[in-house]
Amino acid sequence: VPTLDYAFYKAMIITIFFSTVIGFGIEGLMLRYTTPVKAAIIFIFKSVTAGFLGYFFGGEDLNSIQILGACIIIAGILISEVGPYLNKKSQKI
Predict the structure, then answer these.
(1) Looking at residue 93, what is its pLDDT?
(2) Cα torsion for 40, 49, 72, 36, to the nearest 10°?
(3) Pairwise CA distance, residues 36 & 13, whole Å
(4) How do residues 62-89 score in pLDDT, each as one tens digit?
(5) pLDDT of 7-32, one tens digit each?
(6) What whole-number distance in Å separates Cα of residue 17 and Cα of residue 13?
(7) Widest CA span in the chain
(8) 59: left (phi > 0), else alpha (psi -120 to 50), else beta?
(9) Closest Cα partner for 40 from 70, 81, 83, 71?
(10) Cα–Cα distance measured from residue 20 to residue 9, given in angstroms and rounded to the nearest whole number
(11) Which of 2, 26, 67, 93 lies at 20 to 30 Å from 58 by C-alpha?
């Protein structure tokens, strides 16, 4: 249970402002300069990044299903980004 003191409210305001308002604002502005596929990859990779940061910096535990899910997401990202490049390269030969 959090202690509702000055430090708690200060942390909440900083977190809400920097990670939510500024983060989503910049993300929304910059998404117009990328393709829809890359934008979808960015949104999908958010959960993997959150899990990674939570595990290494937040001390959270990940079970085998969560790790498998992260691996599947990363494999999907690699296939979607590298696959078209390899397909174009093989058609030139």
Answers:
(1) 62
(2) 10
(3) 32
(4) 899 988 988 898 888 788 777 777 777 7
(5) 889 988 988 888 888 888 888 898 88
(6) 6
(7) 67
(8) left
(9) 81
(10) 16
(11) 26
